[in-house]
Amino acid sequence: xxxxLTFLLLPFAxxxxxxxxxxxxAYMRAQSTIAHFSGTVLVAQKGKVIYSSAFGEADREWxxxxxxxxxxRIGSITKQFTAACILDLEEQGKLSxxxxxxxxxxxxxxxxxxTIHMLLNxxxxxxxxxxxxxxxxxxxxxxxxxxxxxRTFQNEPYLFTPGSQWAYSNSNYFLLGYIVEKVTxxxxxxxxxxxxxxxxxxxxxxxxxxxxxxxxxxxxxxxxNIPFYTxxxxxxxxxxxxxxxxxxxxxxxxxxxxxLSEATTKKMTTAYMGNYGYAVFVDxxxxxxRIWHSGGIPxxxxxxxxxxxxxxxxxxxxxxxxxxxxIAGALAGIMLNMPVVNPYVHKEVAINNAVIDNYVGxxxxxxxxxxxxxxxxxxxxxxxxxxxxxxxxxEKKFYYGDGTDRQIEFVTDAGGKVVKxxxxxxxxxxxxxxxxD
Length: 437
Known about the structure:
The chain has a nine-stranded antiparallel sheet. The protein is globular. The protein starts with a helix and ends with a strand. It is of the alpha+beta class. The chain has twelve helices and 22 strands. The protein has helices at 2-16, 20-33, 78-91, 116-121, 146-150, 170-184, 188-198, 235-238, 244-255, 262-268, 324-335, 356-359, and strands at 39-45, 48-55, 57-59, 64-65, 72-73, 205-206, 220-221, 224-225, 240-242, 281-285, 288-297, 300-307, 312-318, 361-365, 367-374, 377-381, 388-392, 397-400, 406-412, 418-425, 428-431, 433-436.
């Protein structure tokens, strides 16, 4: 009987001893097998790596597996390095954040109203060039000089009066890269290397597809290679490559004031308009303060984040456009002992459509979400985007019909009234507050 009791208790004992790295490995294995994640992940606490792994292939045609040495295009994480270049020049007295844009580009429309601070904080109102039709310069496949590229968007109408609102725009950081060139008299890549050297980075730089780059990963979209894509368009807004290890070293060096002075680092990581500092978002995951930025460029997605509670970093790099921010959020949730559900295959089930009426209403989780009924189905409505069908996998749990790993779960009382709701992104389960019926 004693042996039988020991046997019956053993599974619980093993479960109770599951470590954070084991939970992360189980989560990432599910991401790899269920959601087809390809890339590398790294989690470190106080600078010490506690979990890191690579999944999928760096080159599908040659079946070369991803490794932690893999170099990935990091998209908009590039902006952190561009901001550091500008702030380093400010520390040397070579420019001021109050400088107007027309000091460096005299013919730029409203250039006397736009400051370097606004460019850094994304409050200029300058239209994002990635939202514009491709110009006849064909910067996606041909190298284009920064000054020539700027002319493709500088005469676009402003979205708002400079400094009055916040709107993310790659154009702002393209202009900042050009300002670095004007101040130093050298290509942006030259000053970028000064900054990466300060942080001790050996595997980070501006990407050029015509160079031989050891351990370069290839980017994919579904079952296709991404088209050839030069970096003269992304430039200082998104043209860099790096590794997970180098991005950890970067974050640690930046936040410990080894790249910039303490006062300047604080300036960079202060939340101004839009919960945005200079190339970093400063907000919280639920109640846990964080500093982060994501990146996206054809074939690649990336995320770099630091959490104050526990002093830990989460870095995710993907070469098949997997949702790096969702994955990073779930890994952070595991660190913070928040509820995280491993990826699984979602299957639609038939339900009593009458229950949908119980769920219609307005909810809040970082932003307002309206749930509405259309033709006997539940939809999520957010201003500015198409409505997304919520497909039932039970009478109380629905998954997003757009293919993203998101679900909404309801808890109801005996009468069917919603008493609690949860939004899950990448498996991380967060409260969804009901505002109104």
